Structures
1.
Amino acid sequence: MNKKNKRVAMIGLGAMGTALAESLLKDKIEIHIWNRSPNKTEALEQKGVSTHLKPHNAIELCDLVVICLSNYDAWKVIVDDEKTQTSLKNKTVVQLSTGSMTEVEDNSLVMKNLGAELIEGSILCFPEQIGTERASIILAGKSRLIKCHESILKIMSPKISYLGESITAPVVLANAIMSSVLGFSFGLINGAAFCLNGNVPLEAFKEQTIHNFARMQTEPVRILDSILSNDTISTQASVSTWFDAHKKLLKISEKLGVDKKFHTGLNLVLKDAIDNDLGDHDISSIIKTFSK
């Protein structure tokens, strides 16, 4: 369907919702907006969007409905309204709110019962990146829906990752990415605490971190390739090697007065892998203890 013939309803105007709306505005898409706090719509109103006092007023005018709320509870309040339920019939809903697997599954059933088509998604970038090549939106749903609305979806994120028809795939992948980001970030901050307590200049830590960027970019790919190929035996540093090295982290944490909770957890994971006869395997073999 040609994007020029489309009207898009936007439900929710937080930082991310606003960024999504602005990206569509740049492409001269007709947008109808509802937000719980009307004052947040003023700037976009001046740019040509139509604002509405009730969600159903925006939805009933559009083919495509983009939901970007802080959580599914906020959406549930909206969709419990009878007029909203009626307005959703035969619409395609792109759900980009943050939710759990159970909330995603429950919402899928609600949309089906109301006669709405559903594209489930997650946003894996910052608001300022929306509409640019750095944007990342992952989606799941019927392939014909993605194809039908592709022209609009690609305005918000030129690179769309389609995960198939499993409606919970985006929330699983989003949390997988969150796990990897948090693991790296916590380790980085913990290392900074070592330096601060050990009288090592943070500039030196920063310099070495930058120097190691190349390895830090290739190592995650190597680990994932090992898991994909099911080859967790080939290694240059076994789980036992990492376990022995990690013991030193616990000792230096205690010596420097750095909280040990982060490394206590890692120690338990490494020990669990060794107890499961993975000591001679690559660190990628820990997937077997996580997935058991």
2.
Amino acid sequence: MIKYFTVSCCLILALLGCQSQNINTRTLEHALDEHYLLTHFQYLASDELQGRKVGTKANTVAQQYLVQQFKHLSIPPFESSYLHPFTFKWLFTNEVSGNNVIAQIKTSDSNDYIVLTAHFDHIGHNGERIYNGADDNASGTAAVLAIAKQLQQNKQQLNHNILFVLTDGEESHLKGVKAFIQQQSQYVPRIKLNINLDMLAGSKHSKNLHFMSKKLDLLLNEPELQSFYQHQNYTNFRVIKGFKRQLTIENQRVSWLKASDHFGFYRVGIPIIYYGVGVHENYHTPKDTYENTNHQLLIQSANTVYHQLMLLDQLI
């Protein structure tokens, strides 16, 4: 997350007909490969990648790793390439090069897209102090890979094309998502929804996943919106609507709408949903490591997002 600067069709149909009290007591099904999820999470947060800062050799290693995972899953690239380069000026002097990593699952019956995003870059290192960015955002990136794996296995159930956009340069004022929107402007009218994942594992003390949404009323009528909100209630896991209006460790007020890549889609009128745990004590510190995160929270968060995506794919 940038530093702040200002299920199946039958299940879905059953849920739409359920009373809210029944929905509120259901159990979260773990559909994703947990070992796969945690393995990628651990590597992306490792010292080897030196904090994955945009424009660095370690960031390039992370890019190639992500490309290889999509290849292993037999998920094809977008527009004939997994890597989509961009450049930007930083601190008024140096030009920085980044690459978004983009793959897609296409259906035969739709021209429209649901875009699942997570940024894979972080803020690098300062001498021997590595800012591993485990929660921020190796967690969201690993979740996208795990969700992509499951969607590829169930792609015959999908009604929409799914675009997996792993952005670079998010920590540099959302440069990656801005590049994506500019470079793929012809696709913007075909993007029905962006689901953005940024910080899903928290610290060891984190317990809850939060979400915010904007412009969903452009896609869903009132009963469908209520189904979406109610669908997030589980007996064994809390998913909370909204984020606390808290200060970061830099004593700057959080603007959650502008806090991550979903803002780039919101600015061009695309409905968005953002999932995250909020700010915690390890945010943007060298303590944000694999060992200091809540692995079970990540597993539950990623599974929640997968189920929500499957529901929304049928509703919108």
